[in-house]
């Protein structure tokens, strides 16, 4: 992964963006952080990344200004990771991947993994980024997420398997 400070060989914004977020693990780390995870162990459990892989992605995201480390424990020294404004601005890309994946990568019988309700009016926004009830464009902070029972169970099973190791 190229760092922002490094000289890049193209002016293409897509290529430059992929230098930062262009691999599976980085996108999954960001997904988990958008879902509220901030600590290494929870990020590792839900992404299923190895500790080395996760540490590398977090360091790269920090170097690229996408996350900031903040200590939450002095002894032993432990950090949590928080999204920066730059990372929060990336959320529409994750939301678009969700929409595309729900439409093209799943069987309809599986149902939607994460439902979003517009906090302001209380209506489901479906897969779009505009509330169909009130017509307002929505961002992550405008939405209340609800995991399907299947997705919630999948996440709980990962956590239980990790704790059992």
UniProtKB/TrEMBL annotation:
Q: Which UniProt keywords are present, listed alphabetically?
A: DNA-binding, Transcription, Transcription regulation
Q: Which SUPFAM superfamilies match?
A: Winged helix' DNA-binding domain
Tell me which domain of life the UniProt entry assigns to the organism this sequence originates from.
Answer: Bacteria
Look up keyword Transcription and say if it applies.
yes
Q: Which InterPro entries match?
A: HTH_HxlR, WH-like_DNA-bd_sf, WH_DNA-bd_sf
Coiled-coil zones: none
Q: Which GO terms describe its molecular function?
A: DNA binding
Instruction: Name the chain's protein.
Output: HTH hxlR-type domain-containing protein
């Amino acid at each position: 992964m190229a760092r922002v400070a490094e000289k890049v060989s193209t002016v293409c914004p897509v290529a430059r963006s992929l230098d930062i977020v262009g691999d599976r693990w980085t996108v999954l780390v960001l997904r988990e952080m958008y879902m509220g995870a901030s600590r290494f162990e929870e990020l590792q459990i839900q992404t299923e990344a190895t500790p080395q892989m996760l540490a590398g992605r977090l360091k790269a995201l920090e170097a690229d200004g996408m996350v900031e480390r903040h200590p939450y424990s002095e002894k032993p020294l432990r950090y949590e990771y928080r999204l920066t404004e730059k990372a929060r601005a990336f959320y529409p890309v994750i939301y678009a991947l969700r929409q595309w994946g729900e439409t093209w990568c799943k069987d309809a019988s599986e149902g939607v993994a994460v439902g979003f309700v517009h906090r302001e009016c209380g209506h489901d926004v479906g897969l779009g980024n505009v509330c169909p009830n009130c017509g307002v464009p929505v961002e992550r902070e405008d939405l209340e997420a609800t995991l399907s029972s299947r997705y919630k169970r999948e996440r709980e099973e990962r956590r239980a398997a990790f704790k059992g190791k």
